[in-house]
Amino acid sequence: MGLLYGLIHGGIAIVFTLVLYLGGVKWFTHPLAWSALAIPLIVAVLGGLAQKKANSGILPFGEALKTVFTVFVIGTLISTAFSYLLFNVIDVPFREALSQEAAEVTGKMMERFGASQEQIDKAVEETLSGNNYTLSRQVLSFAFMSIIWFVISLIIAAIIKKDKPAF
Predict the structure, then answer these.
(1) Per-10-residue mean pLDDT for the chain, 167 residues long?
(2) Domain that holds residue 87
(3) Distance between CA 85 and CA 34 in Å, rounded?
């Protein structure tokens, strides 16, 4: 179940990224884009519950953890690979426009929080100075997200687990 639902998570993430891409750079930096974080959570829970149903309602913690974490890892790997291809192979100018938009959003946000102009300029310069979609940054991001997903998997597995009755 983990593999199947991981592929589903990856497919939905690709579609969501394509919708944002077709909407333009403004959609990528819009707060609604953060709703994408709900996709893996929902699919992972559904994958865990499907595994539980396939096991006649019994799902030990270890098996629940394995299933849920597999969903997260496979989906995130697919999503990361697609983002890398989109921004480094398919449409590099879009990546550059996205960096520019992200720098503007960062500057406005910091201004609202009362940051000094020097701090704002530094943050904007850092945002514009590099490619956030290099292979090394994508691998680092994947590793970091895998750690976060593991912690979340522990919580989900603890909630959906069901041990065999003692009698």
Answers:
(1) 96 94 87 87 96 94 97 96 93 87 81 80 75 86 96 97 84
(2) 2-160
(3) 21
